[in-house]
Amino acid sequence: MHRTLRHSRPDRHLGRRIVGRADDEGVWLAVQQAEKADVAVTSAARRLDQTLAVVQNAVVAPAREGMALASALRAAVGSIRKASTTRRRGSGAGDEDDTLFIG
User: Fold this and answer.
1) pLDDT tens sequence for the chain (103 residues)
2) Host domain of residue 38
3) What distance in Å separates the CA atoms of residue 6 and residue 54, rounded to the nearest whole number?
4) 44 occurs within a structural domain
5) End-to-end CA gap in the chain
6) H runs (alpha helix) in the chain
7) Does the residue 25 lie in any domain?
8) Residue 101 within any structural domain of the chain
9) pLDDT of amino acid 71
10) Using DSSP, how many helices (H) and how many strands (E) does the chain show?
11) What 8-state DSSP symbol labels residue 10?
């Protein structure tokens, strides 16, 4: 009978064990949620990086090509103007060249 009384008494440490298990479960759930959040943020960052690369290729690359084309046109127009200016100056200077020519 003494044995039965002993087992019928409430366990003083039972409350601590239950709270400890709840704490362990809470920590485990928190770790799981943190891992899910990490996966979500990593995935979002990867998709953002891919999206920005697509935007750069779709917008920035043609803009660079357009700027290169505009620069080439400016150089061509500048070259034509320079040649035109040189010819005008050259027509008056031809008489001087003729007088210097020994032949």
Assistant:
1) 444 445 555 566 655 665 566 677 888 888 899 999 999 999 999 999 999 999 888 888 888 888 999 999 999 998 888 887 777 665 555 555 556 667 5
2) 18-89
3) 74
4) yes
5) 147
6) 2-8, 14-55, 61-100
7) yes
8) no
9) 92
10) 3, 0
11) P
How far is it, in rounded angstroms, from Cα 53 to Cα 46?
11
Whether residue 96 is contained in a domain is answered as no
d(CA 76, CA 74): 5
Alpha-carbon distance values, 47 to 27, 58, 93 (Å): 30, 16, 68
- Count of structural domains within the chain: 1
Calpha distance 4→20 (Å, rounded) = 27
pLDDT for the residue 18: 58
Q: Quote the pLDDT of residue 35.
A: 94
Whole-angstrom CA distances from 36 to 25, 28, 29 are 16, 12, 11
Instruction: State the pTM of this model.
Output: 0.43
In degrees, to the nearest 5, what angle opens at C-alpha 37 toward C-alphas 33 and 38?
Answer: 115
